[in-house]
Description:
Blueprint: H1 4-14, E1 21-26, H2 38-49, E2 54-58, H3 69-75, H4 80-89, H5 105-111, E3 117-118, E4 126-129, H6 133-137, H7 151-157, E5 161-165, H8 174-179, E6 188-196, E7 201-209, H9 216-226, E8 230-234, E9 237-243, H10 244-258
Parallel strand pairs: 1-2, 1-5
Antiparallel strand pairs: 2-4, 3-4, 5-9, 6-7, 8-9
Amino acid sequence: MLDFAHICHDFASLGVDSGQVILLHSSLRSLGHVEGGARTVTSALRHLLGAEGTLVVPTGTSANSDTSAIYRAAVAGMSADEIAGHRSRMPAYAPASTPSNLMGVVAEHVRALPGARRSAHPQTSFAAVGPHSAAIIDGHARDCLLGERSPLARLYEAGALVLLLGVGYDKCTAFHLAEYRYHPDPPRRNYRAVVDDGEGRAWCEFEDVRVDDSDFARLGADFERAVDVRCGPVGAARARLFPLAAAVDYAAAWFAVNRAPRP
């Protein structure tokens, strides 16, 4: 059984400290049995970050998009009528109330905290608690999933750290910002999602960079060999702590060499 004191000790040993801005990706299950679950993990981080620190988590929603992998899997094998029925039941994104999809219970706990602030993007939102929340979260443009008008760019400017807690580099969203930076004209595609902007359910469509995390694990392995990454245990989980800007800069250079050029 891991308690608050144990989790605090492990986070502090890793390098979590007062005043930091941290982007957290996490798997609660990987830690082992934690007394109080997601609440204890979140409380430990906020305790160490203190009043001047800010905790940020991804709170993405892919179940409201018909251009997502989760949608394609859901409608596979359905008839046209069944697909139409499924589409009519797809949840419209509302920042204040829509649960995240596949982001983990810690991220969902942070999203629901009193005072948490969440960005407006209908697919790739982030939530934050702490004094820098507004500066990081506000202004997330609909046609910019994870680029210069998203919280990732604000985290880069804020000197944020990335904390991978029991998850691998394949979950490191910071690398996506590099996809917008490694080439002056990166590949693009169309996206669609159903939203509720306060006037009822509606579909929106936009064009943006074609984000692709299929090579992130390989990128992360090279990054960890090249850059000083703080690694250590938090409970039974392996954790990594590193500067977000270093990850983005390394990834941009790595993509330029390792991703096939555009036709």
